[in-house]
Amino acid sequence: MRKKLAAGNWKMNGTTASLAEVDALLAAHPAPKCEILLCPPATLVSAMAARIGEGPIHTGGQDCHAEPSGAHTGDIAAGMLVDAGASHVIVGHSERRQDHHETDADIRAKASAATDAGLVAVICCGESDDQRVAGQTLDVIGTQLAGSIPDTATATNTVVAYEPIWAIGTGKVPTLEQIGEVHDFIRKILIERFGAETGDNISILYGGSVKPGNAAEIFDVANVDGALVGGASLKAADFSGIISALETA
Ligand code: PEP
To answer: I want to staple 207 with a disulfide (CB 3.0 to 4.6 A). Which of 69, 82, 83, 163 is the partner?
Structure first.
């Protein structure tokens, strides 16, 4: 059975005061019927994990370095995230691909480092607006996944997130047919590469302007196993609506 996962990416938002949102989420979902993950900025990983304790919300990082330690000012190693209480890490988010010029090879190395350290790697892919208009979406996704997912991926150490860049933070959402087409394609790629046992059980998240109001219909699409949520994960009330939609999907 594939795991259903509602993952929140706080990006560069949040201070200690924001942890009150975690308290509200824990109160709203004491025994969730899906996995819940929050990825705060690195400054809050340790405090968030401590606040959650044995509670049913996982804490994750937003990136990690491919090396376990060394002279990499400002970077964080996967083992450091584990030490801070994280269980997951996002790698290859389009904002990292764009702002930090991360390549598929970089992302593959980061994902390997993450899983070697015991983290679940949430590996992101997604096409730009221009690429979609040019009819290149599936080619782009195929290339990104071939380059970014390590050979050691399993259904327990890897999650894939499809995030069309043009839908992130814009309020624009692909049609359900467009989401379904890409998720079916990703599933096919995963099965071809890793075999049915693994490929069919790696969870595939959709990300890009998911809100409480559109979550249920997105979760009804085949091969959508959850969501990676940016803006709507910052407030417990919004994220809770998305979690509830996934619980009943
Ligand atoms: C994201 O950045 O991963 C994302 C999906 O953002 P938003 O939900 O705000 O579109």
So the answer is: 163
